[in-house]
Amino acid sequence: MDEDYEDGHRFHIDDQKNKRNLEIGEMDVDGSNRETIFLKNNYLVKNIGAVVRDLRSLGFTSMTEDAYASAIFSLLKAKVHNLAGDDYRALVLGSIKDWIQAVPLQFLHALLAYLGDSFDCDSMSSGLKSPLASRPSCYPGIDFPSEGLVRWQLRLEYFAYETLQDLRIGKLFEIIVDYPDSYPAIQDLKQCLEYTGQHSKLVDSFISSLRYRLLTAGASTYDILHQYVSTIKALRIIDPTGVFLEAVGEPIRDYLRGRKDTIKCIVTMLTDGPGGNPSGLGNAGDSLLEELNRDSENQESTDYDDDINSDDKQAWINAERWEPDPVEADPSKGSRNRRKIDVLGMMVNIIGSKDQLVNEYRVMLAEKLLNKFDYDIDSEIRTLELLKIHLGESSIQKCEIMLNDLIDSKRTNANIKASLPQPSLSGSKLGGTDVSLDILDATIISSNFWPTIQAESLNIPASVDQLLCDYAKRFHEIKTPRKLLWKKNLGTVKLELQFEDRNMQFTVTPVHAAIIMQFQEQTSWTSKNLAAATGIPVDTLNRRINFWISKGILAGSAGSDSDDHVFTIVDDMNTNGLIHESSEGLLAADEEGERSVASVEEQLRKEMTVYEKFIIGMLTNFGSMALDRIHNTLKMFCVAEPSYDKSLQQLQSFLTGLITEEKLEMRDGLYFLKK
Amino acid sequence: MKVKILQWHAVASWTWDAQDETCGICRMAFDGCCPDCKFPGDDCPLVWGACNHSFHLHCILKWVNSQNSQASQQQPQCPMCRREWQFKA
Known about the structure:
The complex is a heterodimer. Chain A is mainly α.
């Protein structure tokens, strides 16, 4: 635009120059000495006014206006960027508005007054008042705002809104990372969007930054989930109807569904709080579930404060609150279910079904409970109560029974010990170790309601075995006709290794305890003999014994046979360091196999094998089938026990398993038998 | 070297030892509970009849009551073997 003017219009160059001066003069205007500086600048205004009037008389009215408008806009833009910047912790919209009042509007007022426009407008609009002019606003130092000035104000404010909005949308990803610290920025953005209505801009830009920055292989599932939760919370403020959230959440959900550890992470996040979050992103405090609960309590108290539970009244209130969906709403999706934005609901939405969430939670809970030393389950009870509120009582019935088992165990345990005071003490002095019933605690579970527990054979030391026998006998007497079945490989053992020069304490699994106790009588074992003595398969033994090797208690060396190792107890401290280093890697491998409860996938696999024959038969008959056809056929025909109740995703993962086992193959979405 | 056990926390499961998997009346597992109960074990015990058939206590009580209320005035029978139902001492 500048070029247009410069060829031949000397006046305009002056005009621009003057205005530059004016801008510089007014840049650092604040409210207090506005008036004095304003007077100083009066001269400039007059100059510009003269130029503008001259240009107008030449017929360049619109051009001159464009010129000073663009100067003001660029000034305003700089001001917005300057005020808003990268700080999301303060509301800036208010101060921007104040600045618009204080600086550009004052200038325009003076200019318009000088040009005599304001007078013209006033007299004109007295008869025909524009609705814009009726907008209540106060103009410091200006008594009667003209319509021209009001137009300018609206124009400037719209421009400010748009600039701030663009600025914030560009940085929305960071703003949401900072949530809830960035709450003021979200508030500003909300106001801007209400004014400009450019929500779709937000959606597009945010989705692309999500794709670029979050939904990549490098981001941990925890981080993605945290960002998802923050996004839900932040967008809930901007758009309570949830339409844009729907659009933004979809890519995140799609992506998370493709990750294997999503369910596990969600459950950990829900139940463990920041402790379960290795990246340390979670804010200090309690679990997500606690937070959700507080949220829902707050919501309820505001929603139903005057609720006398009359449906008519509530319906009326709802009707009054009704607002049409934004234009961008996808009409194919019902508007009903998006009314309520429930964070947990949206998390469950990622997983697919509540049942899967509950199953995963149950496995994690079982793992936790079985590895407890005491019967302290207060935090688990609290979590369960919270889950109950969100997921319904019936779905977590089994988890409740599990916790109840622990409570019962505590009582029974105390009972048994009280009723068996001394006789066992003398009776169990076997093998040179004194063990009394005092050291034995038991968790007694209702196995039907627990996840499948991996049973392993194990010969535990005779002294402890005797104790278990006594305990079971006592249980049978107290709870006739119930019997106890020991799961000898489960539980935890605290033991102390007493060497000549030192004592070491360990908390280990019964398997580890059984292994190390064999070394009391004999300082060196071959793996075959040790396996026979402890009743563990040789390969399992080799894996498990790594624990003691890594602690520097045992040393392994190759025996006479290639796959027979000799393990010897290490009495000498000096060699510890060396051995420790060499076995680090092995330990890591060992820990993976340490779970006592079958994971959800393993369980699913076990359950699905029933259908393997059906699927193979089907594929023999039909040649090839698509996934959903297999699913539907199974649903149709497997109605007898066990009826087919798996989801499409579960079937798919099972079929993928069969493909890796080379039983099936897949081409173009169709499954075939492998020939 | 000596090993001293400081504490051994073992895990066990309980069973009614009923020689059968499920209750003949409600078809639920014996080691589970009857449809009316929430918690297995003490809350939903098993009983044995003189004929050595076992049921959830709540299930057989329902059965006995329904038989008693019928007009026939017969002694209640075991639902499995039709012998007269008596609780095993």
